[in-house]
Amino acid sequence: MERDDQLKLYGLVADRLKDAHARVRTLQVPEGVRMALNRKLLVITAAAKHDLADAARRLEWFMEDLDEGRYPEDVHADGSP
Fold first, then answer.
1. Per-residue pLDDT tens over the stretch 44-64
2. What is the 3-state secondary structure of 63-81?
3. pLDDT at residue number 77
4. How far apart are CA 16 and CA 22, in angstroms?
5. Portion of the chain with pLDDT greater than 90, in percent
6. Long-range CB contacts (< 8 A, 24+ apart) of 53-57?
7. How far apart are the C-alpha atoms of 24 and 27, rounded to whole Å?
8. Helices (H) then strands (E): counts for the chain
């Protein structure tokens, strides 16, 4: 039973990550902001490999930030503000 729950959570996180990437791709924000958001998604994806429940929580927070319009500050391609 526990394995089934884990697989369901994995599927949920995978679907939500796809949604998050699609939303970030369509945002009308400066490229530096888009890059910062994509980096956050990569961190969440990496976390899912080690702690799926933590990644699900992080992804939920990420999506809430998107819903509320809370984005990272704009940075240049070289990472400088």
1. 999 999 999 999 999 999 999
2. HHHHHHCCCCCCCCCCCCC
3. 53
4. 10
5. 78
6. 53/9, 55/13, 56/9, 56/12, 56/13, 56/16
7. 5
8. 3, 0
